[in-house]
Design a protein that fits this description.
Largest sheet of chain B: 4 strands, mixed
Strand order of the largest sheet of chain B: 2-1-3-4
Order of helices and strands of chain B: HHHHEHHEEEH
Structural class of chain A: alpha/beta
Number of helices of chain B: 7
Structural class of chain B: alpha+beta
Distance between the termini of chain B: 27 Å
Strand order of the largest sheet of chain A: 2-1-3-4-5
Shape of chain A: globular
Strand content of chain A: 15-25%
Largest sheet of chain A: 5 strands, mixed
Radius of gyration of chain A: 23 Å
Number of helices of chain A: 23
Oligomer: heterodimer
Helix content of chain A: 40-55%
């Protein structure tokens, strides 16, 4: 009998040797079928090899090439015990304690099998959407409470409604897949492990605002995601899910992937539009909003990968179902990403409201180095450094805003006690200097001056500069760079005295 | 000598693509390994924009270069998640192994060392990439092993 084995094919797994492990397992003298699934997001266990047994999928990880012979001798092909055995995948606490809506299929399926996708709820949302009017789709998304998962957290329904109401001969859906924050990889995982989910979300967005063309602006640092997305777009088209007559509805939608060129600020929506138009990625002043004057001057919906990727489940299971997850004005789930100096790093999809401490200690199991935690940076390079005393903060947009912190894209980077927070503050300015688009002076010049002031030890002037950058920069790049710098100075002043 | 006919052929593939300048530059760099300065006129003509605009785009983005890189390209992530796992020390070690500073190409043209800000592999940092192949959880020792024979 053929034994089915799952070995992930995502960037993280491959960077830890998954391709070599797959090759080695394929050479075993048994009748084996290897499925290259996506990752479940339990990065600390990658490469996670799963064997299909009568009881379910049994997981072994992290598996290296040198482990394969031992696993074979121990009988892993029949799900036997072994020091690397994690038991049934679905019973692993890290996965079991999540609330998976957007990532329900990640890890489970072959990312490029449209049959797998449809057999696991895929395209049920589009089917429902095709039976509704544009306004009804927009209303559902509004009711769901979905807010932009890219960082700014703007209500998605309101944005869509503006584009729907705009009169134009052409409208666009732009998917912002320029996930540049350090500590974030949730977009990459969704694109690599469930690309049809994003494609379906964009298609529904197209139906919602009467746009026929969608672009995915993908960062060049994600070459595997490019390959997988392009394959998935082709397959979706061949199966009548993209093109001029989607599932016989007479509705049209097409998607094209465009590649960035290593510029962080192009993750800002207007800079992204400039880049998509083939120009330097410089920020545009708003208004006009992209919803009115967006790509090529036309009304444009700009959402990030997870926002669009959350739409299929909302359309499949209903706005109220989605809304019932979360707390306050933060509805639904968010994909947190545990990174940096953490023992069990990975992706955790959870309803809003879990505390930062629970996330780091229960899912993350503390630091990788085993030393005490000094700080965590949440929300990317423009997010605050948070000390352990504040770990009881619930992870939701409002609580973070109140604490002058940023939830952003949900990235959580852990630092142990060896970190020097003056170095981290200086890096915030240095990074801003490298990545500033240069259009506004506070960001272009302020970033360089900030770095110099830290070197010089003039922290009073540094704080004044922070206030200036905060109030007078054109976009979040300059406006938020003070957040990591100020938080580092406020919580760890002793590091600045050295 | 840059094969300008080949360049013209590549540019022509992209001129009808709306906003296709970046894709065109990626196309040229994919074939030549860089965007030859000699092609700027051709790009400007093809997209009906000024030479200054073309140069502005090329110089704006970190990915594009106007002279050849080393035969091998090594990139190290310098962002926070990798910093938290010792990327600063790793970078020093790699610079020592290769005998060049970050951002430079060795004199014999063997290798270029570049900084990257995030490969999206932050749960298993620090990350180092050699000719497009990403390696996670890289220690100084592992880097030395991976780069064996690369020191100029």
């Amino acid at each position: 009998m053929t034994i089915t084995i799952y070995i992930p094919r995502d960037t993280a797994s491959i960077s830890l040797g998954a391709d070599d492990v797959a090759k080695k397992i394929a050479e075993l003298p048994e009748d084996i079928k290897i499925v290259r699934n996506g990752t479940w997001g339990m990065t600390y266990l990658e490469p996670l090899v799963e064997v299909e047994t009568e009881k379910g999928r049994v997981a072994y990880g992290p598996v290296t090439v040198s482990d394969v012979d031992g696993l074979y001798k121990a009988g892993f092909l029949s799900g036997a015990d072994h020091p690397l055995c994690q038991g049934l995948t679905q019973e692993i606490d890290y996965l079991k304690n999540q609330e998976r809506l957007t990532y329900a299929r990640c890890g489970l399926i072959d990312p490029l099998s449209i049959e797998d996708y449809k057999n696991n709820g895929g395209y049920a949302g589009l089917k429902n959407a095709l039976e509704k009017s544009s306004q009804e789709i927009v209303d559902d998304v509004t009711t769901s409470g979905l807010r932009g998962r890219g960082g700014a957290a703007f209500p998605t329904g309101i944005k869509w409604n503006t584009v729907l109401a705009a009169e134009a001969d052409q409208k666009y859906i732009c998917c912002n897949a320029d996930e540049g924050d350090s500590g974030t990889f949730s977009d990459r995982i969704l694109m690599e492990c469930d690309p049809f989910c994003l494609i379906e979300g964009m298609t529904i967005a197209g139906l919602a605002v009467n746009a026929t063309m969608g672009y995915i602006y993908l960062r060049s640092e994600y070459p595997l995601a490019k390959e997988i997305l392009n394959d998935a777009i082709r397959i979706a088209g061949q199966n009548g899910y993209l093109g001029s007559d989607i599932q016989g509805s007479g509705k049209e939608f097409n998607i094209e992937v465009r590649i960035g060129a290593g510029s962080y600020v192009c993750g800002e929506e207007t800079a992204m539009l400039e880049s998509l138009e083939g120009k330097r990625g410089m920020v545009r002043a708003k208004p006009p909003l992209p919803a009115h004057v967006g790509l090529f001057g036309k009304p444009t919906v700009i959402n990030n990968v997870l926002t669009l990727g959350s739409v299929p489940v909302i359309m499949e299971k209903g706005a109220d179902y989605y809304k019932d997850f979360g707390i306050g004005k933060s509805r639904g789930t968010i994909a947190f990403q545990l990174a940096g100096n953490v023992k069990c790093g990975g992706l955790i999809e959870k309803a809003f409201g879990i505390t930062l401490g629970d996330m780091i200690n229960e899912f993350g199991s503390g630091t990788f180095t085993g030393k005490n935690i000094k700080a965590v940076q949440v929300g990317g390079p423009l997010g605050a450094y948070i000390p352990p005393e504040q770990f009881d903060m619930p992870l939701d947009y409002e609580a973070f805003q109140e604490a002058h912190a940023v939830l952003g894209h949900g990235g959580i980077v852990v630092f142990d006690e060896t970190a020097n927070m003056k170095d981290q503050a200086k890096f915030a300015f240095d990074f801003c200097a490298i990545e500033s688009c240069g259009k506004c002076t506070p960001c272009r010049i302020g970033s360089t001056r900030g770095s110099e002031l830290i070197e010089r030890g003039d922290f009073k002037l540094m704080m004044e500069l922070c206030d200036l950058m905060d109030t007078s920069s054109l976009c979040a790049m300059g406006g938020m760079t003070p957040i990591p710098a100020k938080s580092a100075f406020e919580h760890w002043p002793e590091d600045f005295k050295k | 000598m840059v094969d300008l006919d080949k360049a013209q052929e590549i540019i022509a593939e992209y001129t009808s693509l709306p906003g296709g300048v970046l894709e065109c530059l990626h196309g040229l760099q994919g074939v030549f390994g860089y965007v030859p300065k000699e092609t700027i006129d051709l790009i400007a003509d093809g997209f009906n924009i000024s030479r200054a605009e073309v140069y502005g785009v090329i110089s704006y983005y970190h990915d594009f270069r106007t002279s050849p890189a080393g035969r091998k390209i090594v990139r190290i992530c310098q962002a926070e998640a990798c910093q938290a796992m010792g990327s600063r020390e790793l970078t020093e070690r790699v610079e020592e192994i290769l005998g060049i500073q970050t951002g430079k190409t060795s004199e014999n043209g063997d290798v270029t060392l570049e900084a990257v800000y995030c490969f999206g592999n932050c749960a298993i940092s620090p990350n180092l990439e050699i000719d497009g192949k990403l390696h996670a959880r890289v220690t100084g020792e592992k880097a030395a092993e991976l780069l064996k024979g690369e020191n100029a």
